[in-house]
Structures are given as structure tokens and as C-alpha cells.
Design brief:
Helix content: 25-40%
Distance between the termini: 138 Å
Largest sheet: 7 strands, mixed
Radius of gyration: 52 Å
Amino acid sequence: MAFRAVHEQWGALFSHLPDLGCGRAWEDVHRVRPPAPLRCDECRHPLRAKVSPTGLRFFAHAPGGPQCASAGESMAHHLLKLELATAARDAGAHVELEVRGPEGAWRADVMVSDPAGAWRIALEAQLSAITPDEIAARAARMGQDGVASVWFTDRARPPWLGRVPSVRLVDAPERGLVVVEGLARFADVFRGVWREGPHVPVVEFLRWVFAGRVIPHERTAPVEAPLRALRTVWTAPQYAEAETAHLETERRRAAHDRDMRAQQREAERLRRDQEAREALARGGREAAIAALQERRAALEGPVFFHVRRETGVEPYIEERGVPELAMGAPVYARGLYGVICPVASRVPAARDRLAPLVVFVASERERQRIALQARPGQRIVVLPIARGAGPLLPRQTTAPTRPAGTDDGTPPPLFELDTP
């Protein structure tokens, strides 16, 4: 069955048109003798003009015809093509049925065009099973030749719906064919979602398509029920623009959130690094203090015997360092005699107080550090100690030396020096 035939003299004939599209009557080709010279535009086999019991006019292949795409189409497919052609004509378009593309690459069920020639659109009635990839390839072949396409079906859930610009139809009482799926509108109130569009007669839908009031748009934002998540929807241009603006806003917001999270991570990293440095510094200070205390303890014995040998007096050695002597431990022998292991970095503030004293250190390296900070001529004595050595004399047995002029045996206050 076909609605289009090619007459040897008159050219293309359309059975659904009153004048067959060429100024002729149906009676000029129906039941004439000899048969009218009609051929199939698809396979070139002879056609005969027929009328169905319901009065539908069509062309049928003569006996012995080859396998032909138009001959294998169902009655439902042919009827849908006719309804699409009628609706397109009512919507103001120029209509042709079963138009072949260049070199037969494709065949449009209904080819509609602007009377002024500004555009051409193929209206496709797709009722048989087809995969999404196959229908996308067919639409792409038309697009390569500059022909847009709109695909129509009345099947409940075809898997290809939305893969190409398409809508689903139902036959509604007193309204005829109505578009019930494929139209959508974008709502950006609290969150950007696509919602179901209106249900409109197919002729109204085609008017919108021809006028550019609705366009096919590849959806990105989510959908809200009952709208299915179709890849491509028909929508007004302003809704497509609204989705684009919404997605750009969301992109900027997401980028801002990523930047804020990155800044927070960087701030947290810097905080951890600072805490690690502070902990390391504390550990370094604590280790330095422990090492200093260990050196002082190890020097008590050597200092005790050195001072007694030089002065003839058993010295008294303070257990702790004092700030006034750069945190060195005071040594008394007839008054303040010396200091053990002052901290080199504190020596500049105590130069005058250290100048008349003997500074006792445990190594040549320590002597050099202190000498760089002390006054010229500062006496510094190196008393080497064994690693791990502690005080040679228990402190509780170390008898304090009575400075000259004292009766109670306690050491004189700091810097009240006796001159031997």
C-alpha cells in the first residue's frame, strides 16, 4: 500500500489529494482501461489505484512485485501518515507524501515545507520496532541533507522516544490525535527541573514547530514525575535558555564551593603544618633544655674539683640556671665565682654580669658559641666530660662554702661579689 505514485506523463500523484496533486481526478487513474501508467517511486514496479471498503484511496503494487518498503507498511502506518499530512496542511505547511532523499538514502513519510521555501521537515510515523541507534542513524542521514525530522508514535513506551526529536500520540475522543508525551517546560523556582508540558492536538503542536515556538532540546537538568527522563524534549526557546542559565549558575556555585573547600583544606593543611612546626620547635627546645641540664649535671664534679684546686675553697654550685646569668648555673667560692653552661643566645643580655666570672663549658664548640656573644676577654674554661656522665658528688653531701663575712653558711646574693 502507498499513497504516492509516479505517472509517466503527469509526474507524482497523491491519492489523498482531491486533484491528486497534479490537477487530475481520481477517476482518471482508477479502474481505467488500459491501466494508468503508474509506478512505485521506491521500486519502480507498476501500481494500481485502489479504494478500500471504508473508502480510503491508495495505490497497490501489481502482482509479482518485489519486496518494497512501501508495500510492506501496515494500514496503521499509512493511516497515521495521512493524519500527519492533513494536520500539517491545516497548520499551514506545504505537504508531500513518501518523498525520497538524494540517491535513495532515506524516504520521508510526510515531507512538509514552508510555502516560502525557508525550511523542510520530515514527519515520520514510527510504529514498528526499531532500536534507538537505528532511529538516530536515520535521523542523522536526513540531517546531513538539511532536512530536520519529527518522529511520531502511538506506542506506550518505545525505547527510542527522546533519542530523536519525537512525541507520543493518543487518539482522544472529540479531539483527534493529541500529543501526550514529549513536550516539557523548565521550572527554576527552588530547584531546576523539567516538568510535563501540555497535551495539545497534533495540528497545534505542528503549528508551534513550524513557527519555532517549540524546539527540540537536549535536556540536562533532572525531571519531575510524571515526565519521563527523555534525552530530547520539545520545549519553548525561553525554557531552553532558562535551563542553560540555571546550569551556568549551578556550575559557578559548584566551582565556588570547590574553591571554598580547597581553601578550607589549604587552611587546615597550613594549621597542621604550623602545629607540626610548633611541636617540632617545642621538641627541639625541650631536647635542648634536657641536653643543657645533662651537661650541667655532668660538669658539677669537674667544676667542683677545678674551683677547689684554683681557690683552695670547696665551691657551692646551684642546681638550676638563673635568667640573670643567661640561664647558667651559679658557682660560689668566696662569693660568686663562675657560671656553668650559660645559653649562648642569652649571653648578650648578660655580658656585664658574666664579664668578671669564669664560664665553664663542656666542649670547644660550646666555648666558641659563647665567646662570639660574650665580651672580649671573657674567661671560658672547657672541662671535657664523658658521654652520659652525671654529677660526681651527690648534691646533698656538697657542703656550701661560707663566703667571707657570713656566719650562717648561706651563699651571698647574686652579684654581691667578694674580692679575694
